Write a sequence for this structure.
């Protein structure tokens, strides 16, 4: 009789040990501070490369040579160029519109065009002006900013092409992206649904002269970035 009790006790002990081993260890909870720091590293990756610039002086000097490289540049550039790019944060389409200036402004495309701005870091409210401008927030910054330069594609994602910077220190730009849902979804940039529109903006904007205005009401998506 004692032997049976001993065997039963051993089986229970072995089962208990296996049960303890099977339990997965809980990963430590990542704080908002840590998530912001991680997001800043992504910003730094995109912001690291010096952008090409198309100032008015440079554009005038190089225009005849640049026409082949800029297929969607208007014939009167840089006298006729995009003066303002307006981005609405309102769901579901986040319309982007273009305002032109110059002799041929009336004959240019103005939109609206579909986009998807930044979803924000989990727990942050990107509708707050200060929060939207915060480094690492993954929000699209509200306000008006001059175009700072251009790049062929983002360093962090080769799918993001025809990049037009307006807050490069945070890695924030307008660019084409193949996924543009009816809610805010990006890491802070403005995803443009049409590659031709992204190219049109890059080909007809001037550094310092073209302004990007972000306004409207940001709505929290079902899933934000972790």
């Amino acid at each position: 009789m004692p032997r049976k009790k001993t065997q039963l006790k051993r089986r229970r002990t072995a089962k208990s040990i296996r049960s303890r081993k099977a339990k997965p260890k809980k990963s430590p909870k990542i704080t908002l501070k840590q998530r912001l720091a991680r997001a800043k590293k992504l910003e730094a990756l995109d912001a690291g490369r010096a952008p090409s610039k198309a100032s008015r002086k440079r554009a005038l000097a190089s225009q005849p040579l640049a026409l082949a490289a800029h297929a969607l540049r208007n014939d009167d550039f840089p006298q006729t160029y995009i003066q303002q790019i307006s981005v609405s944060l309102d769901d579901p389409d986040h319309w982007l519109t273009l305002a032109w200036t110059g002799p041929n402004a009336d004959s240019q495309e103005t939109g609206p065009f579909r986009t998807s701005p930044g979803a924000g870091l989990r727990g942050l409210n990107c509708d707050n002006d200060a929060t939207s401008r915060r480094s690492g927030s993954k929000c699209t910054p509200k306000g008006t900013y001059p175009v700072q330069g251009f790049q062929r594609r983002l360093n962090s994602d080769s799918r993001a092409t025809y990049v037009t910077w307006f807050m490069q220190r945070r890695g924030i730009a307008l660019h084409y992206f193949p996924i543009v849902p009816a809610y805010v979804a990006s890491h802070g940039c403005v995803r443009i649904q049409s590659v031709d529109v992204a190219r049109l903006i890059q080909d007809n904007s001037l550094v310092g002269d073209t302004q990007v205005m972000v306004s409207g009401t940001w709505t929290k998506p079902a899933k934000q970035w972790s």
Q: What stands out?
A: Confidence is low (pLDDT under 50) at residues 60-65. The radius of gyration is 25 Å. The helical segments are 2-22, 32-47, 56-66, 129-132, 195-204.
